[in-house]
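Budget justification note: compute hours in this period were largely spent on complex prediction jobs such as the one shown. Inputs:
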Amino acid sequence: MPSDFPTRAMMQGMAKFRGYRRAEPGTQPNHLHPTYVSSIKRAPAKPLVYLPHTLSETTGPSFDSSAIDAKASDLTRPGHGEPLGERIIVSGRVLDEDSRPVVHTLIEVWQANAAGRYRHNVDQHNAPLDPNFEGSGHTLTDENGNFRFITIRPGAYPWRNHYNAWRPAHIHFSVLGPAFATRLITQMYFPGDALLPFDPIFNCTGDDKARNRLIALFDWDTTVCEQALGYRFDIVLSGRDSTPWEK
Amino acid sequence: MSLQATTSQTVGPYFQIGLARFYVDDLTGPGVSGETIEIVARVFDGNGQPVPDGVIEIWQADATGKYAHPEFLQESKNIQETDGQAEEQGRGQSVFRGFGRVPTQADGSFRFKTIKPGRVEAPDGTLQAPHIAVSVFARGLLRRLVTRIYFPDEASNVEDFALKLVEAGRRHTLIAKRMPDGRLEWNVVLQGKDETVFFDC
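Corresponding output:
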């Protein structure tokens, strides 16, 4: 075999099929998590079929800035007036597992208002809606993977998973990432929330380090004097396999 | 020391608030060539009850087997077709975005209008059968479920890279059925009898 084998062209061809890394065991939830009652009849019973990544998984959708409402990263943007609640700034970076920024990717967020009520017809919690708060926002990460939302701190709210169940305050995050394989939906929690130890969704993994990374950090650097507290929430997406797929 | 990917959490019951802006149920449009198809589907849980609060995303290549992805300008084997449309698309940026997202309805149903994708390469150098990659999110799912839609009467299914990984008796859960009116029916069964094949992706 010649010493320059595989050829550069072959390497480039193979690089297309470098997949994304699979989760470190224990860091992602199992589908069945019985204390989260809704998972019992919705989790697959059969084992997943391992799929080496193909182009269908290493490519993925993207949106350019023309699709984005530049004002949508400010969830407090005035309608008729300012929403009630504690104004906060949530910023962070989207990185891959090799600490490389994930640039220009779509982040969508949604959350309850300060009273713990979602603007959604299924939410019947008897807390008030806020006419000045929709609870949704989106943005693209910048060329360094940074994002920044202005919002209000969401309230805790009851749900019917078990007797006297309350969800800790959280903001839902959806991130497209660079590929179908990296698609992530997660939730951001707040430090010091007394409800965290009792929440089956937050406690969906046995790896306490992994789940504690879902808790934002209070951050003086992004706190704005006389304006808003800053919280920092970095999001990590799967990294690229270092070796190409081999048959 | 490498970082670890963030833990997934359920989309919950209120995703409509955050995800509705980028709902896309029709991937066709001016300049998109290919065979228009309509997929009608329902999602069921382990009790056979419809899942009325799920959200489905699809990702697919265009009719020539190209993905609208910046990183790869593929030289797919099957865009060497000589008809003018394929050549024209091969040269320029495809107008086909390849992304769809819809919520399920009260009866667990959802539908997409799109075009039948072309074949794209597999890692072993073969061409995959035409397929659509699917993510299923719902309350109760702490992680998304990943599956695929394949097409009926498609001879290339028998040699498909991913279908061959699935035991023969379960492959039918990934292949849509042609309805008398020409639309394609494809259901998602989250659990139980005829449970849909989901991939570790």
